[in-house]
Amino acid sequence: MAPQTDLRRIRRLLATTAAATVVVLVPTACDYAIASDRIPSSQTQLGREGQQGQVRNASSQSGTQDASTTAPTTAADAPEQTGGAEGEKQQAPASSTAQAPADEEKAAAPTSAQAPASAAEKPAAEQAPKPNNGLDVLAQDCSKSDLPPHDGFQKGDRCVSTAFGEVGGAAENPSLLITDAPQAVSAGQEFTMKVSTRNLIRDRFLGAAAGGYYLESSVLKDGIQRGHFHTACRMLTTTDAAPDPAPAPAFFLATQDNKGGAGEDTVEVKVTGLPDKGLAQCAVWAGDGSHRIPMMERANQTPAFDVVRIKVD
């Protein structure tokens, strides 16, 4: 027991020599500071508290406020409570233990800069519009067409560059219906068909023969289509196959009477007579100012057209 007592006294004597103590202890503190730079602030604070907790307790008990005496007391008293040299060996694992979670966090968890970036990129990618909505669009204008431009006259093998124009809402899209027509007529006999139109202002008609065909974009007035409607009757040679589209119909008329509108009204169309016996197909369909069937908001809406068949004796 005597040798241990002498050893303690020697250590306390050395602790009172401030100059020697500073030279010995400062490198130890700097080594810890260098290691603590690689530890998060919360871990560093915890490590400092672990090392200095006993010092603060000893200082509070002794009432010592002098920093020059507090530091030597720490170095001298610590071996008494932790086992001398063994206490110094325990400090190194403590700093390593504090570093390990920090290294694991860096390896396992994404950085604060990466996480928000990846979270922000996904919504941005979802909101970014895709070219042509991601669809394989063949053409949107005549820039790549080999055909000559359409000139407003009724010619085929041309490319029409006129923009589609305005399209109204579903509830305002045009519709029409044949509400009355004979089931049979005699050849050459004049007869009347009644046509009801809705959401069609019948005030716009560019003469196709004058060069107004497919020349004008669709135009709305207060959300309602401006245009007219057509009536045509053609003779069917068979009902087992689609008819030849090329021949002109037996009867054709465009109705532009400056009436119509958002409400429904009925127009009487007089057919001057069909010359041939057989089965006639009489159709009506709406047109915009340049004779195209008006566009609709949705693809599953029925276009503004109707058709009946009349027997011609």
UniProtKB/TrEMBL annotation:
Residues 41-63 have a biased composition (Polar residues). Residues 64-82, 90-101, 108-131 have a biased composition (Low complexity). Residues 143-153 have a biased composition (Basic and acidic residues). The keyword Ribonucleoprotein does not apply. It comes from the Bacteria. Residues 41-153 are annotated as: Disordered. This is Pecanex-like protein 1. It comes from Pseudonocardia xishanensis. The lineage of its organism: Bacteria, Bacillati, Actinomycetota, Actinomycetes, Pseudonocardiales.
